[in-house]
Amino acid sequence: MYEIRTDLALETRELYQEKNKGEIPGIKVEKEEEGEVIITRVEILNEEGQKIMNRPIGRYITLESRALRKPDADLKDDISQLLAKELKKIVKIHKNLKVLVVGLGNEYVTPDSLGPKVVSKLFVTRHFFQLYNKDSDEGLIELSAISPGVMGVTGIETGEIVKGIIEKIKPDLVIAVDALASRKMERVNTTIQISTDGIHPGSGVGNKRQTLDKEALGIPVIAIGVPTVVDAATLTNDTIQMVISAFSKQSRPGSEFYKMLGQLNNEEKYELIREVLEPYGANVIVTPNNVDDIILNLSHIISNGINMALHPGIDLKDVNRYLH
Fold it and tell me: How many domains does the chain divide into?
């Protein structure tokens, strides 16, 4: 069965538009540019949009910039501030707010280590509130964080761990950070998605576990994710499309063959590639070779954004000077 793997609502919308030549009914889309960053806000408004998108009613915001693969200090600061700005539109910050950040993924597998790395850079404060018996603070909220690991290491379902922690510390909100999968190589490590519908741990590597959402945990869950991988069939499909485009523009022997391939739709090309790769076990997950540096930069950007969004007294100067 034809199914392109993607965790991005933006790409689900694109797939529908490519096939149906129109906008999805029941959704609202806003798009703007801030310097080198493209911000797209997709909101699923009703059951019709939910059914077509195969996602819960809610908001899905993406920040895209190809420069994220090799960002300079200014770009990292800009995207951190934009991320904080978008989070503040979703999270109602008040002085008694309690937030639990869950860093999902396997810290020993680099493309899947985004969540744990983000958690390691957060300005956690719950222990201060407990030590000084405080209910609120003008500049800080009560923030706690956990990296629960993966089921293959712990033997425990991630959802069970998180639910147990919630029952004990009673936060108002969970923010879950995880690696995702994209349908396009150009979006791998260049896109940050914020959503209000929760998250499937392990979805980036095709290993979906128990969903972390309001229904499962009893409190709202905001998900922040970055596509760090793409499957080989998707990558091959993109590459073939570029080859077709290049050769079909040239009058040389064999160019008619590429024009013929160009007449196949995305579904037909993708299915052909899957049929070729799968007998050899070749439809593997692919990630860039400099993924170590990319994940480190992305973890700084996301942690800075979370710190600035949640703590009223922390700004860009503070996160850059004191928190790393």
Answer: 2
